[in-house]
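Bench log. Compound arrived from synthesis this morning; before running ITC I wanted a structural hypothesis for how adenosine-5'-triphosphate sits in the protein. Inputs:
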Amino acid sequence: MSPIVTPPAKDRLRLAIQKSGRLSTDSLDLLNRCGIKVKAPKEKLLLHAENFPVDILFVRDDDIPQLVMDGVCDLGIVGENVLEETALERTSGGTHNPYVVDRRLDFGGCRLAVALPEERGYAGPADLAGLRIATSYPRLTKRWLQEKAIQAEVVLLTGSVEIAPRLGLADAICDLVATGSTLEANRLRAVETIFKSKATLIRCDRPLEAAKRHALDILLRRIDGVQLAAEAKYIMLHAPKSALAEIKKLLPGSENPTILPLAGDDSKVALHAVCQEAVFWETMESLKRAGASAILVLPIEKMMM
Ligand code: ATP
Ligand code: ZN
């Protein structure tokens, strides 16, 4: 059930995020890194950001797609797994799904996987025929089974899906997996990944008022800045002029480094560059072998291109 709330104000974006769960901390962190000050709520359902025209609605993640598609919220942060399951459910019920994905985010990564008791053999999807599969994602599971032309029974369980085989409620499960440790603890093994998911920022697909559109443009630019900076590093090093061409080639994802003279040494220069990709120890070792010295790799907090 969606909470009953009034429509959003004309000049403030309303964003729904998960109140308490795996996406909550990362969603709040993202907002904070975008310069939007919000604290995790204790009791309140709706919080006004102090320094940005956005109100945050704290809800269960399952309610977020519906709140956005129905226009109760302008924006939502939700896993693609929940989004796609809700969209399939609404489509089958004949309801329109008016939403757009504005950004795929760098957190909430997981996969929806079919898992079987460890001792059960598995050669391919055909081995699932005739089984009872317990899941909280019946529509995604059925869609995958249909694509593979497998006849199996799908039973809906809303919690603790992983214990269903032990309780004799099902032969297999289709559940979210991140590290696989929950499966292992329940003596299950994943045999098929049916859906890969990340958190996304979704928006209601109807025109926004000008003030909200403006705020959204700023928010999206800041999210891009945060996500770009997450992997990016600022690298500084000293390089012999003769080795400069080779050293530039070794820098991962960098364009146009800055070259500066070094006081008192004509044979060397200082090189500063933004690397868009992770800089590994191996890269630093290659740079050193190529003649670089005094190599510093610094994190970047924000970026605007
Ligand atoms: P709520 O009370 O809000 O309904 P929930 O128990 O349904 O919470 P969580 O377990 O907090 O949901 O997961 C929220 C989302 O986090 C998932 O739908 C998925 O997109 C993502 N996620 C990331 N890693 C995992 C994981 N290891 N297991 C389950 N979900 C994960
Ligand atoms: Zn949920």
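What the model suggests: Residues 18, 21-23, 60-62, 79, 81-82, 108, 110, 176, 178, 197 surround adenosine-5'-triphosphate (ligand 1) (CB under 6 Å). The longest strand covers residues 265-275.
ITC booked for Thursday regardless.
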